[in-house]
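Memo subject: From amino acid sequence to discrete backbone structure tokens
Keywords: amino acid chain, backbone geometry, structure tokens, three-dimensional fold.
Body of memo: The sequence and its backbone structure tokens, given next.
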Amino acid sequence: MEGDSFIPRRERGLDSFTRSVRRGMRRGKGKGALGAVLRGVLLGAAITVGAVAAFALILNWWDASDRAITAINQVIKFVAILAAVASAMDGGTEGGAMRGACTGLLYMALGIVCYSLMMGQSPRLTAHLADLGMGIAAGGLFGMILLSGKKAA
């Protein structure tokens, strides 16, 4: 027993800390609000990529006007935001408008950054304020609607 020294809990070191952090993350399994919002944004982005690719294939056979293309792109954005907010609201029972608005904002911001990178431009915030506002408004509205549906059920 002479060689065994008592090590207080606070001095166990970094290994103990990292083990407890990993254990806490396994128990939580990304159920926090931020994880849910990020999961929703990624789902919305995936839906957008798939829908835009399908729409591009359809446009090979269909000679659509610019107004029709713009309208269909807006519908794709709304559907993707709705799916993103629904995913972000999964299991959440409060904060529907805020969680939805954050999801819509992050979804639109990601879309703006990706569009700017594809076009070789630097993202200009002022040029995309309407898109960001649409994301906030649609996300907040969808969040309120989905949360009121959960409370009613």
